[in-house]
Amino acid sequence: MTRYDAATLRTTLNALFQEAGAHEEVAETTARILVEGDLLGHHTHGVKLADGYLKDLAAGNASGDPGVLEIQENTPVAALFDGHYLLGPYLVQRALDHCRAAAATFGLGMVSLKRSHHIACLAAYLQPLVEANLVPLILSSDPAVASVAPFGGLDRVYTPNPLAAGIPGREQPLLIDVSMSTITNGTVGKTHAAGGRLAHPAILSGHGKVSDNPADYFAEPGGSILPLGELAFGHKGFALGLMVEALTSALAGFGRKDGPTTWGASVMVMVIDPARFGGTDAFLDETDHLARRCREARPRDAEHPVRLPGQSGLARRRDYLADGIPLPDDVVAAMRQAVARSSLAGTTPFG
């Protein structure tokens, strides 16, 4: 694959978002978070999303105006944000900054965020806080979309509902980004568009058969994505999915009951400062000890030792910052479409 310079990607996206009417700060933040997703290797939730975001800005389904953000409730520790479908990366970053300020005084801060536009890759937000020895948590659902059926059922009810957490460590920080379903909507869509098969049977067809064919998701009757744990232990993923629904949409007071139709997100953001609890050094001593024990565990396969969450992503990030990001063909195609509709055509690596 051709490699693309991260700074050039950020500059290009920034210009595209500003040309689409986004405020400079909103454009810069959104560009940075999208590129960060690709730096960590999450290509379905990085630069590829820009084309959809730009189309929603043009259609009025997303906002680039930071003035629409409304803080409806605000205590020293907790707040409720109504994003009015402002671009999600900007909203989540604002929420994290708000939480970080509260955590500096009270040990933790929390923001419940409703009516955000899509928030991209959750892991992309974590590293700056982890490097400051803070513990960020982000939970997200999309009340306008249903793709996962409840355990034991066939009808789609909720989304993959990801959860991300950053765990500081002197030796190996942990960047956790996992969905409460077996795979994401993006993976299903990308594999189906390519006419391929999934790496493992993660789809439950509308007739109740487990399948690795994404076409079964789009067939009639529609299929669904299996909860984390699949048929054997999917009751656990189902329970965790309901937890995310409660801590996002229910806590914010806006969700599936309201029948939203716009691509978006309900989000919970929290930042914890270990210094206000057992102490930063004690926290790092413990996380370093645990990470070391995990890495030193006898491997089941000698060629594949234990790999901690975020370890490969951070290694990719170092490589990609030095030598450029190898973007998949579908990501490049999406960028070319976005650039072709703009005044940047002919001035970027994408035409």
Distance between the termini: 17 Å
Q: Helix-strand pattern, N to C?
A: EHHHEEHEHEEEHEEHEHEHHEH
Write out the strand line-up for the largest beta sheet, numbering strands in chain order: 2-3-4-11-5-6-7
| Number of helical regions | 11
The multimeric state of the shown protein is single chain
Low-confidence stretches: none
Please tell me how large the radius of gyration is.
20 Å
What percentage of amino acids are in beta strands?
15-25%
What's the story with the biggest beta sheet?
A: 7 strands, mixed
Proportion of helical residues: 40-55%
Query: Tell me, what's the shape?
Result: globular
The SS-based structural class is alpha+beta
> Quick check: average pLDDT?
97
- Number-wise, the strands total 12
Give a written overview of the molecule.
The protein is 40% helix and 16% strand. The strands form three sheets. It has a seven-stranded mixed sheet. A three-stranded antiparallel sheet has the order 9-8-10, with no helix packed on it. It starts with a strand and ends in an 11-residue tail after the last helix. The chain has helices spanning 6-19, 24-39, 50-59, 88-106, 127-131, 185-193, 215-218, 230-252, 280-296, 311-323, 329-340; strands at 3-4, 70-74, 78-82, 108-116, 135-141, 162-167, 174-179, 203-204, 210-211, 224-225, 265-272, 325-326.
